[in-house]
Amino acid sequence: MAEFLNMNGYGFYIWSAYGAALTIFIALALATLYKSFRLKREQRLLGKD
Amino acid sequence: MFGYANPKRYQQLSRIILALALVFAVIFLGEGLYLALIASPPDYQQSETVRIMYIHVPAAWLSMFIYASMAVAALTLIIWKHTLAGFYIRAAAPIGAAFTAICLITGSLWGQPTWGTWWVWDARLTSVLILFFLYLGVMALGNAYDNPDKSQQASAWLVLIGSINLPIIKFSVEWWNTLHQPASLTSLSRMANPGIHPDMLVPLLVMAGGFLCLFVVLAILRLNNEILSRKIHVMRLRTIHG
After folding, report:
1. How far is B110 from chain A (nearest CA, A)?
2. For domain B2-240, which architecture applies?
3. What pLDDT score does B190 carry?
4. Angle CA B175–B180–B182, to nearest 5
């Protein structure tokens, strides 16, 4: 396992690259889902008025 | 084709595409990550750092593909004034910016161990950085006016003008002497005989498929948000004007 994580001494570069990609994708997905939730709530509130 | 560009018909169709794209994104990305990180061999020159290629290259392809699709949407908006095309530009721009940011960050992390530098102002890297700024500009213009139609038109014009950057990115490695390597796959001369071993080509294409499906999922979710946002805008106007 340690050998796999070490990636022949290049672990920092490889895992940072995959980590950055994952972080950006998760942030984008969460922002999209949060906006969807917020808009649906706003639509419900406006519908009640 | 314009029948499906009707927001109601689009929403019916999008539910099916969203479900399919989500399933395929999970399958492709799961398989792609296994192949990229475990099954594929290290490169004889670049050693394990070649594994960065499996996210860097698909992100670069997607960043250009998304901008090209936005340029088509911009043309559709300007010529036929189709509202859904404007929604698409607003929905796709942040996703394109995300893929371009991933391309730039992973490229930098790949450049340090292979080139000995995080960044160099060569034509390929600089033109991709300009693409990233173009995405940010489109996002900013999309929110610049109180009138959403005016914002859509301004964004569409910026997308169209900025599309001149796409051939510059593509051919930068041929037109100028760059540190970045030439295309191994996406040039016509290399299509039949790609300069990459199948053990590396397969994970690369599987990851590209996963990224494409992920883009479809995010684009549909964001497009639905844009349509709902416009509905709310109309509801608010009706409330104000009685």
Report:
1. 7
2. Up-down Bundle (1.20)
3. 60
4. 60
- Single-letter code of the amino acid located at A21: A
Residue of B66, B100, B221 best to disrupt the A interface, most CBs of A under 10 A: B221
Chain B residues inside the 8 Å CB shell of A35? 225
What would the mean pLDDT of B168-178 be, rounded to a whole number? 88
- Residue extents of the structural domains in chain B: 2-240
Q: How far apart are the first and last CA of chain B?
A: 37
- Chain A interface includes B105 (CB < 8 A): yes
Band (pLDDT 50/70/90 cuts) for residue B1 is low
**Could you report the predicted ipTM of this complex, rounded to two decimals?**
0.93
Contact B231 A43 (CB under 8 A): yes
Dump pLDDT digits (tens) for B29-44.
Answer: 999 999 999 999 998 8
Chain B interface, best mutation among A18, A41, A49, by max B CB count within 10 A: A18
Interface of A with B in 19-38 (CB under 8 A): 20-21, 24-25, 28-29, 31-33, 35-36
- Map tokens 């950006």 to a residue: A24
Q: Output the pLDDT for position A49.
A: 59
Sign of CA dihedral B221, B209, B73, B131: positive
Residue appearing with tokens 């859509």: B152
Of the candidates B1, B58, B57, the one whose C-alpha atom is nearest the C-alpha of residue B25 is: B58
| SS3 per residue for chain A | CHHHHHHHHCHHHHHHHHHHHHHHHHHHHHHHHHHHHHHHHHHHHHHHC
Mean pLDDT of B128-146: 94
pLDDT bucket at B2, cuts 50 / 70 / 90: low
